[in-house]
Amino acid sequence: MPDERHTDSHPPARPFGRRPRALAAAGLLGVLLATGACGASSDSDSMSDSKAAAPRAAGAGAEAADKPSDGGKSAPDPGSAVAVHVIRTATLYVEVRSVPKAVASARGVAEGAGGLVSEETTERVDDTQDVSHLVLRVPQARYDEVLRDLAGAGKLVSRTSNAKDVTGQVVDVESRIATQRASVSRVRDLMDKAEKLTDVVTLEGELSSRQADLESLLAQQASLKDRTTLATVTLELSEPEAGAKDPDGDTGFLDALGGGWDAFVTMLRWIVVAIGATAPFLATTALLVLLWRLLRRRLPQRRTATPKATGSTEPPPAP
Description:
Number of strands: 5
Distance between the termini: 213 Å
Strand content: 15-25%
Strand order of the largest sheet: 2-3-5-1-4
Helix content: 55-70%
Number of helices: 9
């Protein structure tokens, strides 16, 4: 009988030990789903419940996984110096004598400052002048110097510049990245401790969602870093219109000779046009004058011939 009593009392101890583990795993899964629905703002409050349930499921190992997350979510010390992040942009419209030469010069200015030409478009308008559109990316430290060099390449028509402070946005993105990384780390720890297949599948979906959010934040951080490190300068180059005079240009003998020849050719052209326009009237006038002269010559002859004829028919006077 002692043997039977021992065999009857020992088996119930196993299910009694497994039941808390199953309850703890279910509790962890519910807490995890709650944290995913609440978002990053309530992630710290929801995971505090998982800290209470984790020791029952896996012991002190879960607590060790949660402790680094507090350090990751901690915001920067308000008293510490925060670097200022500014996005600078500018647009220049410059009139130059030769667009190809100005484009090569602008490329050299950008590359000499440690920047690059991110976009370039050149076209010919009305077969008379060239225009070019350039987008330059230059370091913030050389921003003012580059603007001076570009504006001095020709006649500055207009210039606009803008500076936007995004320090708060940069700090916010960095804080959210730290929080999201800690959240991803906690989900991975729970996946390592999960025993049921359904729990693993649920945790994998949650991990994918949080990893996607983390990658989106990292992309925002990279974009902010690029725009605050390199300033953007849009340069519009154009040549003066045909016939327009360059007030800054010097006039020499060849220029004067070319201008005189153009004026002479223009005068001849207008003379030919005038002759062509008046030719029908001149021909008509010349024909009328010729007819008038012919008629004028015949009229006196008729007048002299008429009296002689009439005088011969009259009888001679009486003696």
